[in-house]
Amino acid sequence: MSQRYLYLSLIPEALIVSMLPPEAFGEYYTVGDKKKHAEQAIFIELDPEFRHPYFRIDEAMARCVPHPDGRPKKSVYVSTYRVLEHVPTSVMGKLYLATRYGKVLALEKSKDFPEYRHNYYLYQELAPVSVLVASTLDPVAFYKFLTHDPDNLINFPAIAYLDLILGNLDQDPEHGEIGDLPYDFIPVLRDALVALRSKRVHTKMVDRTHSVEHPYRTIQTGLYIGNMDELIYYPMPSHEVLDRDHFEWWHSANLPPTL
Fold it and tell me: In Å, how far from its chain's centre is CA 156?
């Protein structure tokens, strides 16, 4: 029997069975045969033995069979709703960042979090909501705030988010040089950071409907996934390491969307 893979997609949130291995799945998911436009994709390979009563995984596995001409079945969607909260971190394997041109970078999960020394942080929440948030909380404290803080009126059973670079705005939100920050929401971001400086709040929404797509070079430390039990972390390699060891992916990640 042909091998079947189980993937947790984060943009958009979905559980998918496929006969394609990660690199081929990433290419299909971003620039597949009949897509009208290419998009980024972030997905995690799960233990194929994972089962949960919330999901009809066995049925999806049974439907994931080769086409009559022998071509592999590329995707069978299991669920597109409340997926993340029902997938334990213990069954999560490598995370894959796919560029809009189909190049895929694999990241290993970790619980060895880096030291955080910034004044402000910018988070792109990926699932279950896609909100852009500025905060004075570092990534670990942000996870606890969203999942466990009884004083927070909005809590999530699980959350996935990226922390994004702020450059000079970390030191001087009002007048810091933009440099090569590629964001199109700089005025709103400045206002949010200034509000955090002057108010007794931990977070400030920058955009509640912003696209989750950002250039991968804007990822500061990595991607975080937390639930009620634990937080895991997928560290993002430095730009130097990406340029040296993953040049093809790095070049693809930095190509403009119009090419």
Answer: 16
